[in-house]
Amino acid sequence: MPLIRPFxxxxxxxxxxxxxxxxxYDVLSTAEARVRAAGRPWSFLHISKPxxxxxxxxxxxxxxxxxxxATNLQNMLQQGILVRDSEPCYYIYRxxxxxxxxxxxVAAASVAAYDSNRIRKHEFTRPDKEDDRVHxxxxxxxxxxxxxxxxESRADVDTLLEALTDCEPDVDLRADDGVGHCLWVIxxxxxxxxxxxxxxxxxxxxxxxxxxxxxxxxRVAANRPGSEAAGWFLTVIFPHRQMQILDxxxxxxxxxxxxxxxxxxxxxxRFQLMPSAVAVHPQGPGNxxxxxxxxxxRLLIHPELIPSDPVGRLDVxxxxxxxxxxxxxxxxxxxxxxxxxxxGIRGLPELExxxxxxxxxxxxxxYATRMEDLMAVADAGEVMPPKSTWFEPKLADGLVSLxxx
Length: 405
Prior knowledge:
Structural class: alpha+beta
Number of helices: 13
Largest sheet: 9 strands, mixed
Mean pLDDT: 97
Oligomer: single chain
Shape: globular
Number of domains: 2
Radius of gyration: 22 Å
Strand content: 15-25%
């Protein structure tokens, strides 16, 4: 079974991409999606978050909500806003955010490769979130939210993808968040075969973001045993060295009964602690920033506490195992309401604000997880702690979709 294959993508017609593309369904709340889609009848949010077309009290998982998504998709097809390519293609996708850019491949990836762990995961999934994606795929008979994958960078493949962008893109737009999205359609059969061969030679691919979408695709395929088309899922695959992971910071509501001074004593048991006159953005593994009572500190974990296993040595694990759990009593960060997580895109001032206004007692700035660490965890068959990675920039929904027929 090939690892990937081209497909006839469902895309906005020329001139309508800016009207259609939207942020991923899972980075906006329903309220935020309502605002973003206001006055935009062709926004893909009407398909990816169709509850915005119902009264505010509507259950987003009600059957009629998924039915509305299908109705909205059919309306966009009938109005000629979305059209399907006439033949299987690959698509080169470039994301640009400030000085950062990354160039990858939009492809249909094999569910069988996912099921056999050739496409590797690093997170647990929640059944309710899987159910939501299964219902969405079944209602639309399409996969509209691409899974973000990575391959271990190879000079020949990286160069090939970059070379295919040496012409005007078919789509070139800047979203309302300032991120640029460019798309090149690859129809040439010789190039398609070259791309397929290059990727099929790879030992593995890694899920960076989209574990629930991947798991849902596997379930849909299992529910359609006679459907060859259901054996593939929508992906965008980037070289790992181009991918950008931002820090995923932590804020905690209270000090578990400690005063600020007694808390600092406990922190010093396992960390070197140095006050800082400026906000601390950690510059390497094992380094942390801490904001407490209006003061920043630089934390450096004692080296002998760093284990060798790929999960235990992660900074998110070190902070959890040596401070959050033993000192602050946060044993299960997935469920403990005393802890919250702040994506690095919001910056360190967001941490200061949430402590200074009294909402939180202490904040921790993190060094961003490295792609090599994510890949090592996946290769070991392990899972990362919750909120370990924050990828930027985000893929757009609606730029290319995969129809299951």
